[in-house]
Amino acid sequence: xxxxxxxxxxxxxxxxxxxxxxxxxxxxxxxxxxxxxxxxxxxxxxxxxxxxxxxxxxxxxxxxxxxxxxxxxxxxxxxxxxxxxxxxxxxxxxxxxxxxxxxxxxxxxxxxxxxxxxxxxxxxxxxxxxxxxxxxxxxxxxxxxxxxxxxxxxxxxxxxxxx
Amino acid sequence: xxxxxxxxxxxxxxxxxxxxxxxxxxxxxxxxxxxxxxxxxxxxxxxxxxxxxxxxxxxxxxxxxxxxxxxxxxxxxxxxxxxxxxxxxxxxxxxxxxxxxxxxxxxxxxxxxxxxxxxxxxxxxxxxxxxxxxxxxxxxxxxxxxxxxxxxxxxxxxxxxxxxxxxxxxxxxxxxxxxxxxxxxxxxxxxxxxxxxxxxxxxxxxxxxxxxxxxxxxxxxxxxxxxxxxxxxxxxxxxxxxxxxxxxxxxxxxxxxxxxxxxxxxxxxxxxxxxxxxxxxxxx
Amino acid sequence: xxxxxxxxxxxxxxxxxxxxxxxxxxxxxxxxxxxxxxxxxxxxxxxxxxxxxxxxxxxxxxxxxxxxxxxxxxxxxxxxxxxxxxxxxxxxxxxxxxxxxxxxxxxxxxxxxxxxxxxxxxxxxxxxxxxxxxxxxxxxxxxxxxxxxxxxxxxxxxxxxxxxxxxxxxxxxxxxxxxxxxxxxxxxxxxxxxxxxxxxxxxxxxxxxxxxxxxxxxxxxxxxxxxxxxxxxxxxxxxxxxxxxxxxxxxxxxxxxxxxxxxxxxxxxxxxxxxxxxxxxxxxxxxxxxxxxxxxxxxxxxxxxxxxxxxxxxxxxxxxxxxxxxxxxxxxxxxxxxxxxxxxxxxxxxxxxxxxxxxxxxxxxxxxxxxxxxxxxxxxxxxxxxxxxxxxxxxxxxxxxxxxxxxxxxxxxxxxxxxxxxxxxxxxxxxxxxxxxxxxxxxxxxxxxxxxxxxxxxxxxxxxxxxxxxxxxxxxxxxxxxxxxxxxxxxxxxxxxxxxxxxxxxxxxxxxxxxxxxxxxxxxxxxxxxxxxxxxxxxxxxxxxxxxxxxxxxxxxxxxxxxxxxxxxxxxxxxxxxxxxxxxxxxxxxxxxxxxxxxxxxxxxxxxxxxxxxxxxxxxxxxxxxxxxxxxxxxxxxxxxxxxxxxxxxxxxxxxxxxxxxxxxxxxxxxxxxxxxxxxxxxxxxxxxxxxxxxxxxxxxxxxxxxxxxxxxxxxxxxxxxxxxxxxxxxxxxxxxxxxxxxxxxxxxxxxxxxxxxxxxxxxxxxxxxxxxxxxxxxxxxxxxxxxx
Lengths: 163, 284, 789
Ligand SMILES: Cc1cc2nc3c(=O)[nH]c(=O)nc-3n(C[C@H](O)[C@H](O)[C@H](O)COP(=O)(O)OP(=O)(O)OC[C@H]3O[C@@H](n4cnc5c(N)ncnc54)[C@H](O)[C@@H]3O)c2cc1C
Ligand code: FES
Ligand code: FES
Known about the structure:
Largest sheet of chain B: 5 strands, antiparallel
Helix content of chain B: 25-40%
Oligomer: heterotrimer
Shape of chain B: globular
Number of helices of chain B: 12
Helix content of chain C: 25-40%
CATH class of the largest domain in chain B: Alpha Beta
Strand order of the largest sheet of chain C: 3-5-1-12-9-10-11
Mean pLDDT of chain B: 97
Number of strands of chain C: 28
Number of domains of chain C: 3
Number of helices of chain C: 20
Order of helices and strands of chain B: EHEHEEEHHHHHHEEHEEEEEEEHHH
Bound molecules: flavin-adenine dinucleotide, FE2/S2 (inorganic) cluster
């Protein structure tokens, strides 16, 4: 029995009919063609599917689309503003934080949430903050650098204002 | 990664949820954060015909002081507890344990009510609840009741929850002065659930242990209170030697689990090590 | 001025990945597409008495269900292997058929038995549950050693004792035995190099599309080598016409070897599409990937190394049982033989070596190349022997290695080094990498810290590993003589467009390695044009002439060299056109910074103008064809031989046996470096995988052949907080035999790191005395038991 749901995805309101069992990740990929959000496992461990739901990092493979009815969703496609890359996107490029790119959208969305809660994390805090995201390519070394780069960049203008 | 078909209903209130449970019977399941239920459904290990979503019920999501108790609504997420000043003031092991659950994504949506109801033997909350002397509040078509956490977990994924009952909250008596607590966890390296988790709440008065409660999860089919430690430590000084002696035999009567990560013998050893670590952290 | 080589140029491919615009196979939706779900055997070994699909066929959305019987009746072949390794006595290896779906019996847990095709993913999945299969379970065998014992269950009736081949390399066994007798000390190890699961984060997927109107077949697939897949598909499996088959490997989310091979699902999707006249997509679930992606390693070995009094190595004797799984995957026979046995010289002057390998069928999923493929197994064996020998002989492990290293040689002035096991190393200074690593560690200081820590009851340990690998795979004639059924050259086409922009088509495939950047750096530099004027195209057999793909750290050494060959042709032709335009002779011209200049004058013509002239040949040299488009095949003269030294420092928790990796130092020599940022990234990733094998990973089959840890809940993937930041450096010894002087960097990290970590843990446990070896992965319980024993 299809259910009608409405949510805001990357700033745009969408209304669709879905089966109750449709996972949010499949809704994004199949119904909205937002294929930047990936599926890397079936046990909710890998984090490739991480998006923001009402500002919080969530594994979209472990949420039903119907559960997100009325929510505000941000995916990797909605991260850059006016064609300008988010500091994390920039950081990943500058510090070679991605190789095959498959984990990258989830990794970046998890990092967005991480920096949101802790704008100035230590290396250890970054590493612990990524415990829900696997990367098989980079050994995480440059992912850590990428997040440090972004943290610096995000904090810089604030510091400038403060001083 | 496709679940079986089911109907989905969003409950508006606790009473609404109970009415829906009664209506749909055994075929229905409550859906809280979904972070135990949906993974199982994706692998078709669980196939309820109806899901009753209680995640958006606001009356379930709170952390508050009520007289001499801390009360946590079933809908409070692990993250809510990890960041709650009130929880921290009551027992520092509460946020400490919350922070060790899964990852930030899981903590954002998984709930304490769901975790306790699910009663995964390797989950973190059960041991902490036992150490905190918590009561679990249940509501069903026939009214409300409470069960001490110590009696709530009855076996492998089994609890005192009866059909059509909903776990509404847990309440924790505020500890006496001089109480400190800690939760220490040895993680299963892949899933990061607990191979052994030990929660300790210790009240020291005049250099002696007046009250001590240790909850152990991961080790056995259900979380339990380590009575041996309580017996051995009350009235003693919180020294390392006393703690060493007290943790001997921890889990001796439990239905100890074993898997490819940890044999029974190793788990029993870890139970001692982690009980000690929790006790040391709560006393030194 | 353009000068890109050697610079950390930011990757040109990143933007699409960073903005969610990568295009992976599962992202592709074709009009009218159907979805496939494959029903697989839950048993490791079982007869299929009957399959009843009648209920499933009536389910909503179901279009068709095929079983192994349908496949068999269609008369197609099974999946072939690409390498032949014969028995010592000359008998042909056993090569039992590997059907796309099995009809008679399943030989491993995950063997495909039926495919459901439906209008949606959900409907295909639902219907699969309604298929009834009458199974008759048979006894199974999962261990390579047990499988060869008399009375063990037979995976294939035609392979007695489950032996696929036996094989030997090196000096005659008698010579080695004799040398061993003269040894002052023999170090012996018996161990399993455990099975690991590659776990690229993107699971495999395939879309088959047959278009009746044109007779064209298209396969979109998660492949490291689309042309090779096409060749196998056309020539061996389906017999469809190669010129009407297009294989596309779009963005691919990591491979690490597991996506080299031609898998049954690829052929199956084409086969289904041809029948149903609609595109059909299959995407593997992760649980399915654990069961069906080819695994890596799984050797059971006994290794003995003999030393004289001073610690000089005298001889090495190795006996290995290599698990091949239930069927032969594409490179399976080659991995434990020609990629393993040949590397047992390591960096040492060992005068006598004999290696004996038995390839064995078991009721487990196929085993094939996984990052390093054979070379990590060889390195693990040698380096565990070295550290163990040092311990037993009370020598310093670093000293023992330095003492036995092959002396430096550049392969130009000094000849290459001929090993006892068939290879000729190209160039190397092995002392330099280890010395640099020791410097980075602060070795003497560490030993003091360690002694202090031990006094406090803390268990600190240091472990070494040095390695060499054979990469840049491979000279076709050589590998042909060794049993390869394909050539291993590479193709590089350079098309200069009329406006001077350059399209480069390579048969290599990038799935994380950054070819689109590195190759462009090479091209831009050679032609003296901006990087942005170069586009690297790969992964589509319709646009790229041919190719052998990416594995064995070969892309730049072989694929890059093919491109350089074409660039040389471009420059040569350009010179003819330039000479004509400048009214000078070709000999008087020099090409630099994107223009041809008449030597000693300021008369010049830019690359872009020459390109335009080539396409608008009004004023044009006689006898020269218009256009500027060259394709080259490059067949390497030899393998390349990267090498390095890795050092791990660990701390073991005395109470729990938990190991914390505190530092990891790697000094690698991968020859010349085009993009240091990318090379560093390759090393990092390899290290994590190698460390993963040492501490965390390992696929476990029980006695009945059940995979018991086939999910991320049970199979430990290294996470960010399991690893430290890596300390890496490199030396540069150019490869003397390819035009770029490069050796390859893809596998280095994964080859050197594993034994370093294990050696470090063994060193940490030294206060408990010298004991039996520890099996990988070094789980806390294993380490704890070691301390208790
Ligand atoms: C990747 C991952 C890692 C994890 N790691 C850990 C970990 O380290 N430690 C740990 O403890 N847990 C871990 N978890 C589990 C997590 O904490 C879950 O959130 C929790 O166990 C269940 O809570 P939920 O709100 O998601 O419940 P749900 O999944 O919604 O429900 C679980 C069960 O409880 C029932 N239920 C839910 N709420 C109620 C209620 N109020 N009354 C009665 N019945 C109810 C449901 O019907 C269902 O049967 C992990 C989960 C994932 C996906
Ligand atoms: S897909 Fe792996 S956690 Fe969601
Ligand atoms: S970049 Fe490939 S998995 Fe992270």
